[in-house]
Amino acid sequence: xxxxxxxxxxxxxxxxxxxxxxxxxxxxxxxxxxxxxxxxxxxxxxxxxxxxxxxxxxxxxxxxxxxxxxxxxxxxxxxxxxxxxxxxxxxxxxxxxxxxxxxxxxxxxxxxxxxxxxxxxxxxxxxxxxxxxxxxxxxxxxxxxxxxxxxxxxxxxxxxxxxxxxxxxxxxxxxxxxxxxxxxxxxxxxxxxxxxxxxxxxxx
Length: 204
Prior knowledge:
Blueprint: H1 5-23, H2 26-33, H3 47-62, H4 74-90, H5 95-100, H6 109-122, H7 126-152, H8 157-162, H9 169-178, H10 184-203
């Protein structure tokens, strides 16, 4: 049976969820597909090319629209895409580590162009548009990385701080205010989007 490129990518993503990025190898992937390892090189020149394609598939299927919907504002679209990216990264083991080492594939060029154009149409320069996307991407990635790391920690950093010398006064009040809140991500995302709006407002 002919091995399809998308089948290889989907199997690699499933294997990523099972064994993690460190355990994902072309040899192991070939065994999962019941083929010889050289067969994979018909589709991918090397492992990095496969990893890049995995990130592309995750983005296409899980991050939300690449451009605003008709009538949708740039800030509403960008915030929505950040939430979609967060959900997409949280859905797969080691997804942040995977994306951190990847580069966009050629078939994502038009999508990236569309994202940049959407922000340029809103009034940003091309360089600002790119930086806006990168900043939001880094924020989402850092958030998910911290969330996933927190799941494997045996102790609670907040509880340890509460018992320290600074665990009283304003610090204690701050801990009490944010403890258990689920909107920290939205708070930070709002700060980023507000800053971008402020840049446009100051220019006009």
